[in-house]
Protein: FMN reductase
Organism: Limosilactobacillus caviae
Amino acid sequence: MKILALVGTNAKFSYNRILLKYMKKHFRQMADIEIYEINQLPPFSVDTPLSEQTEVWKLKQKIKTADGIIFSTPEYDHGIPAALKSAVEWLSYKTNVLSHKPAMVVGVSYGRQASARSQVQMRQILISPDCDTNLLPGNEVLIGNASHSFSKDGRLINPEMRDSLEESFTHFVEYIQIFEKVNEEGLEMSVKQPTISEAYINFPTGRLTLKEVQQIFSTIPFEIDLIDSTDHFAWYSDKPNREHVRNVASLGETVQECHPPMAVPTVMKIINSFRNGEKDVVTRPLWMNGHRSLIQYYALRDINGHYLGTIEFTGSVEYILNLFENGAWSTDGNTGASKHEDAGNDENAEDSVDASTGASESSDDSNDSTDNTSAVTATPVEEADGSDATTGASDAGSVDANDEEADATTGASEN
């Protein structure tokens, strides 16, 4: 279980930070607690440029993948610190990243009443419509007299407070597990519906069951992501070992929400070039995760040319490049020799048969006057401006060298 814990102050020294560090160590057998410092965030303002919101975006990604959130708040003037309120504003303004996320509030202060007032305020904020967290009622952790409740090495030495903390955290973990079970059961029910496996889609070239469609996307050697026509992240293929790791929590987010702020202009430039018909494809060869990969973005259009969205294909090309570098295409295509002319005597002749039809590639019509070798060596006639005369598409125009090398669905730079 993964839990994200926010230190609710930007002070260099804080007993609330000490409390979270103690919880991280004390409850390590129950959960993996990651501590986040809100002093990394800029002060909230609707006018803050995207270029200054990178840390905000990173925090949102951490919350998406966390099973639960802990807010640790001190008490300043009977309320939460301004820095914590600013952080919550970032997490609730034009985003639903906190929606239905299991949340817990803890707090430490120097006074006898602990941080009771600030925790009440924090709870009111977290159950507001803009935050809409799943806050466990009555699960309070109130630690006062901080300087005497912790040892110099950061241990919570007050036995009553320690017992209260252990009880409350155990309840929080159980609370998270309830939601996880509900989500798993819902997923299992959707998979077990008989219509999923029995329904099929008719295509002009054949029909596929929904189960076959799903497995095709999981099997093909590249991954696919889709931004729909309204600029929302709509779908990704469930391919194992993806180059770009996706999370269902990002589905339905706008381009601005699911991309690092610095990359949003580049991403929108690609999408807008597709939407207004300037381009149909953008290609980027990149090094990713230590190997060579190819990313291609395509404008998804209907039969009438109307824009449906942007689709991204990503895959490693190491296997293909290794074949080439090891001489897999060493046969000279200009000799005129058919690669199947010895098929009758070759014990591996069955390799030249189309597995789906049984037809041999070399079984051309003897009356066909077309020279097979010309089909191999011929290249499309290029206009003076470099465009392909057969398609009108410019090869150079498919790669915008001025754009940042960004993932169109996440905006993450691969460099």
About this structure: The domain at 2-186 is CATH 3.40.50.360 (Rossmann fold). Residues 232 and 254 are 4 Å apart (CA to CA). The longest helix spans residues 159-192.
